[in-house]
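Repro case for the chain-ordering regression, as requested:
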Amino acid sequence: MKFILEVKGVKKAYRMGNVSVPALRGVSFSVEEGEFVAILGPSGSGKSTLLHVIGGLDRPDEGTVFIDGEDIFTLSSNQLADVRLHKIGFVFQFFNLLPRLSALKNVELPLTLADVNEKETTEKAKKLLALVGLGERMHHRPSELSGGEQQRVAIARALINDPKIILADEPTGNLDTKTGWEIVELMKNLNAKKEQTFIIVTHDPSIAEEADRIIYVKDGIVEGIKERVNKK
Amino acid sequence: MRLKQTLEMALENLKRRRFRTSLTTLGVVIGITAIIALSSIGEGFRLAVKTNMEQGFELDVLTVIPGSIIGGYSYQKFTDQNVTSIRSIQNVTTVTPIMQITGASLKNGDKKSAALVVAAVNFTDFWRIFRNRLAFQEGGLPSSPKNDTIIIGHKVNTVNQTGTFAEVGDQVNVTFTVRSVPPFTKTLTFNVTGILAESGSSILTSFDYWVFIPLTTGRDIYQTEESDVIFAQVNNPEISDKVTDAIEALFPPFRITIIVPITFIRQVDHILNLIQIFLTSIAAISLLVAGIGIMNIMTVSVMERTREIGIMKAIGAKERTIMTMFLAETILIGLAGGLIGVPTGYGVAQILTMILSRFMLNQGGNNGVLSNPERQPSTTVNPVFSLEWTVGALVFGILICVIFGWYPARKAAKLDPVQALRYE
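-- result from build under test --
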């Protein structure tokens, strides 16, 4: 199996006034293609920063990230945007849908940015919305959808460009337990069906237990990695 | 992102903030309206002045006089040889010499009148040059003028405000003073063949105060073969300068003055042009203010949409894409402002000129540049529709929007995605 993601010695500090606050203090790990990985840690452990770095939203102070064998931090910000557009799909805790666009338009957005023609875009978006169970409500705006439904739209949006990696930042953090589990199930199914790599950041150990592998992060370093025994 | 989608999104964003968009657009509308209104009125004003000035001149007629108009009157006269030489210059169509006889008095029975100038002319050539100005109220140009033919100007024929001095067919006596040593007077009887209609004043003189007799008769009276003034008509006023040079070359230096009407028009046109540019510049300032309004609004808008920009960037939007999205919004505002502003501008121009011309009529039309002292105001200012100004205003409007939209759009494009996503 080849590594779809390699994180190598990533350090990142934030400046708060005159004080430098280290968020990541040298993080390294690798993820194989098709894996379902959870990054587990308490709040403030640096796991969200790690996800932002992996997704090319934030540049590390030291170290780098390889996606599909490519060192993404040697790229210009335009090329990095292309990596995010084509190789990565984001799912956020607060869904982060564009409020004025319908569910369908939100899902279409990455393909629109990628200049794919309108007809193909719409067809694919409809298919994905059906896949996440929202075929009926695709013309509703985010404000007319429940939290769970909004997260499904966000997942469909993350999937539409057929990215190699889906990065999810506390995807259940803003949902009730039952809905949260439905979302986790959905992601696991997609992982199984489409062989896409999922990396989920969570502080909920029970959700992390669903992953093939758990990477424990605390105080900006990897504390340990736990492989599930019955890994598929 | 494709153009269509970019525009759709921009339109959607503008619609979302309808009130704000309308106000911002209103700023542009006012700017464009002001530019269009002022420029089209300005152009109309210019045309009106020009038309009026052209009525005061025969644009295609060069007047050649000896010496200078003021302070340098010369007793030198022109010979028929001079006339022939001028006639042979290229682009000169008609040349006619005249004798100007002053101080003559007219008598028709008991009725008396006087003429500013008794002009001894070649009727055919003279009327060929001034046919538009010298229309007949009564009678006409004799087909074969006799030595005793006389044509009387409108004012000369007006005595005691309303009465007439003579009618066609009357015999009138004209007394000439011949300034020889010693001076003597000579009275001749003429046959009236025409009374002129009111001609309107030329800038140089008013033919209403003139009477016209044949050149040969004038020369007989004064025993001369010379003339005082030569009129030369050119086939195109624009080449007056060339013809003027050619005429001047025929005479020794500094002996004659040539009055070239087109130069007056050019001067006035130049001044009016400056005024128009000045007015339009003032209007352009209002568009500049609108541009600052756009910058202000777009900066606020970028702040409000920080999180959305973060989302767009997270899912792979390039800086260029974000920038284009915001610029598209300002361009749409500029375009809408232009499309509303241009017709509004022409509308405002129409209304303003209506008010303006009414105001001028109330003043009796007897003062100011636009009025003609001898006639009822014949010229009204009509705003001029100009394709150049229209396109120019539209382009300028959009340009202003792009310039002032640039900074906020760039600010949006450069936002850090992580911080933008955290923005509440």
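Ordering looks correct now. Confidence is low (pLDDT under 50) at residues 364-378 of chain B.
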